[in-house]
Batch of 2 targets.
Target 1
Amino acid sequence: MPKLRLKPENASPPEALAPSESQLAIQAQFIELFVSAAGVLGVPRSIGEIYGVIFAAPQPLTFQEIVERLNLSKGSVSQGLRALRSLGAVRTAYVPGDRRDYFEPETELRNLVAGLLRDRINPHLEQASDRLGKVRQQVSAGQGLSSTEAEVLRSRVNKLESWRKKSALLLPLVAKVLG
Amino acid sequence: MPKLRLKPENASPPEALAPSESQLAIQAQFIELFVSAAGVLGVPRSIGEIYGVIFAAPQPLTFQEIVERLNLSKGSVSQGLRALRSLGAVRTAYVPGDRRDYFEPETELRNLVAGLLRDRINPHLEQASDRLGKVRQQVSAGQGLSSTEAEVLRSRVNKLESWRKKSALLLPLVAKVLG
DNA sequence: TAAGCTGTTTAGAAAAAAATGAACAAGCTT
DNA sequence: AAGCTTGTTCATTTTTTTCTAAACAGCTTA
């Protein structure tokens, strides 16, 4: 008989028992929810699954538990957890006398949104600011444009500038409402 | 000598002349900007290009002009324009005596954001509401949970509910600030 | 009604993104 | 130090998304 890949059940570390059937059903619902959210946010499905399974767990989960419950490869889980930590969406919890990492969810919307803004939105906004300056220059210097054309282009650049300002106004407001 | 694929230059329809060099440079800058924005929003690059080229043009563009300026296939442009129209990001402009469609950009941030919310966010929020009800039910009915575990899960569900409420609060506010 | 435009649809190719799995590092334990 | 355990890295494979090209539909004019 080949190796059966049994879990070592005797040396009892402090991890959760195998989830009951109803726990599994609940977990599945949570995961669905976050997978759908991942779709909206444009992040990989697996990241939604990982956050979901952590969010659905009453206690912090180990890396190994995440891998087993989701049937994902270690590689995917490792990468997914890295992304989630960088967003501040999961934290590691310390468990005395256990070398393994335990993961628990950040549940404050304010902090989750802040992470998204920091990691995904802000860098692009800054880059956009640079580009916008460049466009403005070129439009000013523009040769070979009829004056009405030049006028339209200037107004387009001004529109963009006003978008930028409104965004800059909006983001702090978002933070405030969520806090 | 094989066919040279000349544009018929004699029958002069009301479309713009070939853009000058500086117009091309300006156009390129605008396009870069919107391609980058497409990245943030998670829409295909080609859609960013199409919106960009329309935004950069002092006059409305024809389908054919978009195809030529971007070196995209007719298929991509057709699909991209459909998506942009569905978002309300481009409109068709009527030109008397011309059978072709002319495209011009929606430039009000308020309307652009409204389109995104309508097409991309709202459907997911509604779906999330449904799922959330389901989870709540299952957590209430949940067997095989210790009472502390059940307590944590209930609080997680409540968190989700509060996220939903805050989002519902936030979206109108966004509309207001942008208007 | 044939022939020419204008644009749409869609099967399949090409490109991009995501997931896997095997090698590897780092830390314990014996 | 040899052998676990825990997790990371990264080259490769798989899956998904995006783009293309060719057929086609609907008008308009000859």
Target 2
Amino acid sequence: MTVSVQAVADRAGVSISTVSRALRGVPGISQTTRKRVRDAAVELGYVASPSASRLATGRTRTVAVVVPLLTKWFFAEVIAAAGRVLSREGYDVLLTELSTVELRAGFFASPRLHGRSDGALVVAMQLGSEELASLEAQGQVLALVGSESAGASSVRVEDRIGGRAAARHLINLGHERIAFVGLRAGPGSTLGGVPPAERLLGYREALAEAGFPSDPGLEHVVENTVDAGAAAMAALLTAEEPPTALVAASDEIAFGAMATLRGAGLSVPDDFSIVGYDNHELAGVVGLTTMDHGVAEQGRLAAEALVAALAGAPAAVGRIEPRLVVRGSTAPPRRLRAGSR
Amino acid sequence: MTVSVQAVADRAGVSISTVSRALRGVPGISQTTRKRVRDAAVELGYVASPSASRLATGRTRTVAVVVPLLTKWFFAEVIAAAGRVLSREGYDVLLTELSTVELRAGFFASPRLHGRSDGALVVAMQLGSEELASLEAQGQVLALVGSESAGASSVRVEDRIGGRAAARHLINLGHERIAFVGLRAGPGSTLGGVPPAERLLGYREALAEAGFPSDPGLEHVVENTVDAGAAAMAALLTAEEPPTALVAASDEIAFGAMATLRGAGLSVPDDFSIVGYDNHELAGVVGLTTMDHGVAEQGRLAAEALVAALAGAPAAVGRIEPRLVVRGSTAPPRRLRAGSR
DNA sequence: CTGAAAGCGCTTACAG
DNA sequence: CTGAAAGCGCTTACAG
């Protein structure tokens, strides 16, 4: 049924050792022999048994990609970008979604990756020290996106700078009452929460620099869903002195906020300005001005760092600086515009 | 470093055969022995080497999930749902994205899954007979979503019924000029194309039943992107006698169409009605009436059929009937509404 | 440059 | 119910 090294060896008239060496491209094999073996392998449709190679070498040449959720645009984008470099580099990708606290606990309670992958690319999960220790005890080389750990590769997004730039853009347009809706992990969520916090810090920084008084009533922290964004916007509209603009910590929050405004008969950006965060694939359609934090690039950089580390390179940390993408959801506030009624 | 069967055997005072049997739950082991072995394994933190088990048994207990694209909501949703049942059933999931024709050709040219997975769950790719043969030669048990093949499990979505229901809804509201924007694989795309065609057939069927003349000018076929949807809508608006409603073969097409209408100053649904297809996670925010074809369920059903087939059950074909989800993007045409100016 | 042999860590008839 | 031994299909020192 299945073609083994022995079959190739017979056909090429060499030993199995030679077949193994010839096919893996190790040096110390004559050109003619190598060619003969390769031809035989091709003719027979031979491909080494992964299980056998893995057992013999102790290396799996597979990377586990672990995410809290697969169904959010952000994660799919990161995984896709990472997966492309991993498979280009000859690694299999073992997909692991830890979408509930039970799943997460179970995953770290036993050495589930041991012998299955050589490394793990962990996306947007703040790993506890026991969790990190568990992964390391399982012999995993690590690459983190959205979190950091000494000795592990990671990609760091300058979210404070991003949050600051978003708020700055609105300030520059003339807005003075600017709200912020940030992200919080929901109950039962396995998402980490540090980067969003940095976005909030950047927002506060910009306001302070502009000399605006800090106003806790302008800051909301909600789950990362469209509905939560819609609800937060609604709450903001009930304030004594409502804001004229919003920095949303994600595009999904922004989408929800836009829906609420539309429902209230308010126009974006004529009556209200919004800056999102992500540059979601659908941000363009709705004309959302947003912070692009190179989502695909996060995945790519992490995968590249992991591949390098698996080849013996020291852990590396990548850096991404978010940049503003101006579309139609931001404009000067009504009071500053000529011709406004 | 790594704990082997031998270590567990020593600690439990039995042979390695007994350890293996006790841990895998095979019958013919005394309760006391089994417990002793299990305790020893836990104390030692032992977990069998996957490579070794795979080599010995010839089974990998992993399933390859192959998709044309990871970054579309549809695929992420299907994979997530499938992945949850697969890992619940103890299978590893090997992720394979074939996003270009080169990648696809390379994948099928060599037995890339051989010895890596016991089965493959293939999403939305019309596999050619050579491709199917390749997979079978690699010993893969198959489950297909969005395509069918004799002997393979699959889940069939009644897209003709769905397309018909969408058009019907508009007809019932009183529309008489109803356009259709369908899906086509773009250049270099690896997407299959049969299900979308069925949606078109259903649409035509509904129009014929209503006695409307068929009008090719009302039918467009484009790539499945928001931009293509926007462009198609724009083209429709230039017709001599423009339609008053649209059946979009995907929600992304519908999103694009809505953007075009908004840009043209037309109101949905006051001036124009739209029915989408998918029930995309963001369909709710924009108030899109759409056909829900149980995307997550497609993944779940396929995975369940695959797991069953891997356990020896005969191939099964699941069936999903799309259902209309009415939101705010559809209404009677202007001419039928009282109080319209 | 090439081959014989040991070893990777399991599973599974075969005996008892 | 339990154990000794062969075998799964590779890789890799070790000799030559």
